[in-house]
Design goal:
Bound molecules: adenosine-5'-triphosphate, magnesium ion
CATH class of the largest domain: Mainly Alpha
Structural class: alpha/beta
Distance between the termini: 67 Å
Oligomer: single chain
Number of domains: 2
Number of strands: 10
Strand order of the largest sheet: 6-7-8-3-9-10
């Protein structure tokens, strides 16, 4: 239970239903732990020949009816209280889980990209959905029985103690409960076995989701390369592994209840022998047996609670990998207030590595004055995208400093920094929403007229209005129902709308048809005017428009300056440019 202490604050929001549930659990416990045994030993015997039967005042018919009605009454109290308890507990469970799932998702939004890239999407989805689900099950099972069962146990043991006091002393209670401590052994044993297996189940659920989402993401490749059978085989592999672990858990979890029942049966026989020897009357014995059963039953259920707790712990471990991961890139404690920046970018002795042993940028120093269109060129893997990624602080430089207008990016609030940057990536990513909303992402408080003007600037307005739904056309997941060129123009419209002083463009490597190409080049030219632009250039035509060239080679800038100068001094640039010139 200690394990769950840091999460108790989630319960604060559900205080009232929780209190209601607790009250219902008390009623339930009294009805089942005390009500039933009491009826058996003190009420029923009055109607049958025996010690408590008074022949001078035989029970009347109305006595009998009243008593008969008392039986359903006990069950009504027990049933209604039990029902309300379960309902309220489930309510608390879903509320708490909603909060936890939201916290998990919120955390995913701020974790550094480098952390997310080490995880697979499928596994993260599985943590966010199936582990939180498991935790919800745990919470509701545990909360449900954690109130009802101890209440029942206390009442039943209390009844036994009362009986013992009235009949044959304390020894009887001790005999009755002698075997209870034995139940601890199977409960602990199964708990130990289950936690390992539960962790494996959740891990394998992660692999199943992983294969699933990977396959759906590559639907076209599967068909093109004829991978259908291979994919089904790979999926079958992970589901089989999952089932194996699920059955290993079932093997132990299901053994617990019978084990406790067998122990309780021995407890009953022990009580029978002792009660016979000390001469306990039948009705008292019956009451004791019912109370005894009522006290073993909670133990059985609490045993199941322990196994459920182990499953929950395994899931919590997996959630905490994300929940407790350091945010890494966060706002400074005392941020420098910045408004609209001019966009002069400086790198001072910046080094960077994705993995500690392989440096990707080495001691890069460069100053890009505000208003410069700066083209980053160099062979593939030279570090151009990495260089551009350090400016919006997607990654943190391992050494040195990145500045904008002379202010270290680490000294600004992330929101302030990123509000000054518009980013158009290699592959334009759109959300499953309308075109209007996708453009609005650039600046969410923009008016409809501003959106349309941005779309015009990006040469997107005409093709958008040609759709029957116009700006309200839904673009499909990741923009799947638009063509590559259309997607890029929507992304450019977004950048126009953002109207940021600093523009980062990762030019698409895949060539577009010449019509789209012409529009996009024109849009780009317009977009770049009056801003500082970092453009990762793959095309001859783009490089020609740049006022400054940075030539990257193996993580270092080997030449910089205007085209003519770099062309004359850098052999690498000359060869890249000539090659493109020929190709372009
Ligand atoms: N997320 C990552 N994790 C680890 N290594 C990475 C990561 N991203 C890039 N790299 C490595 O860093 C180096 C530089 O990559 P980068 O993407 O900056 O190259 P690039 O110059 O943009 O190449 P291209 O022209 O092909 O886009 C490459 O060797 C690449 O393998
Ligand atoms: Mg790149």
């Amino acid at each position: 239970m200690k394990r769950f202490r840091p999460y108790l604050h989630y319960l604060r929001a559900v205080r009232s239903p929780l209190a209601g549930a607790l009250l219902c659990a008390l009623f339930y416990g009294v009805a089942s732990g005390f009500g039933l045994p009491y009826m058996c030993s003190n009420v029923f015997p009055r109607f049958f020949p025996g010690e408590q039967f008074d022949p001078t005042h035989p029970p009347t018919t109305s006595d009998l009816l009243l008593t008969a009605l008392a039986i359903p009454l006990v069950f009504v109290v027990r049933g209604v209280a039990g029902y309300l308890n379960s309902y309220l507990i489930q309510l608390c469970g879903v509320r708490v889980l909603e909060a936890l799932r939201l916290d998990f998702f919120r955390k995913l939004q701020v974790l550094p990209l480098s952390f997310l890239q080490q995880q697979t999407t499928g596994d993260l989805i599985s943590r966010g959905l199936s582990d939180t689900n498991q935790l919800q099950n745990t919470l509701t099972t545990v909360a449900n029985d954690l109130m009802k069962q101890p209440a029942t146990l206390v009442c039943a043991v209390g009844y036994l103690a009362l009986k013992a006091y009235m009949e044959k002393g304390v020894v009887l209670v001790l005999v009755c409960l002698a075997l209870v401590p034995l139940c601890v052994f199977p409960i602990r044993y199964v708990g130990r076995k289950l936690i390992k297996r539960a962790a494996q189940i959740q891990r394998h659920l992660g692999s199943v989701t992983e294969r699933f989402s990977e396959n759906l993401g590559a639907a076209r490749e599967v068909r093109a390369f004829g991978l259908e059978a291979r994919e089904v085989g790979r999926f079958g592999e992970v589901t089989r592994a999952l089932i194996t672990w699920q059955m290993k858990a079932v093997k132990y979890a299901q053994a617990l209840t019978p084990a406790i029942e067998i122990i309780s049966a021995f407890g009953i026989s022990l009580t029978l022998v002792y009660a016979h020897n000390v001469g306990v009357p039948l009705n008292a014995f019956l009451g004791i047996i019912v109370a005894l059963y009522a006290s073993y039953d909670p133990i059985k259920k609490l045993g199941a609670v322990t196994s459920e707790l182990k499953r929950g712990t395994a899931s919590l471990d997996r959630l905490e990998v994300i929940l407790d991961a350091p945010v890494g890139i966060a706002d400074p404690v005392e941020p420098v207030a910045v408004g609209r920046l001019r966009g002069a970018v400086g790198f001072q002795h910046v080094s960077f590595a994705y993995r500690a042993d392989t440096p990707v940028l080495r001691d890069v120093t460069v100053n890009i004055p505000a208003g410069t269109v700066c083209a980053l060129v160099g062979p593939t893997g030279a570090g151009k995208t990495t260089f551009a990624n350090l400016v919006p602080r997607f990654y943190e430089a391992t050494a040195g400093a990145v500045t904008i207008d002379g202010v270290d990016v680490r000294a600004m609030r992330l929101a302030d920094l990123r509000r000054n940057i518009a980013l158009v990536s290699q592959e334009a990513v759109l959300f499953h929403d309308t075109i209007l909303n996708n453009i609005l992402l650039g600046r969410q408080d923009a008016t409809r007229a501003e959106v349309e003007s941005a779309a015009r600037d990006a040469f997107a307005h005409d093709f958008i209005t040609a759709f029957p739904q116009g700006y309200d056309t839904i673009v499909g997941e990741r923009g799947a129902s638009l063509s590559g060129g259309q997607r890029q123009r929507v992304a450019l419209a977004r950048a126009f709308l953002r109207n940021a002083p600093l523009l980062i463009l990762d030019e698409a490597t895949s060539a577009l048809d010449s019509e789209s190409e012409k529009f996009i080049q024109a849009a780009l030219k317009k977009l770049m005017a009056g801003r500082t632009v970092l453009i990762i250039a793959h095309r001859f035509s783009t490089i020609r428009d740049a006022s400054m060239i940075l030539v990257f080679e193996q993580g270092a800038i080997v030449a910089s300056g205007p085209h003519a100068e770099v062309y004359a001094t850098s052999r690498l640039y000359k060869s890249l440019y000539d090659l493109q010139g020929v190709a372009g």
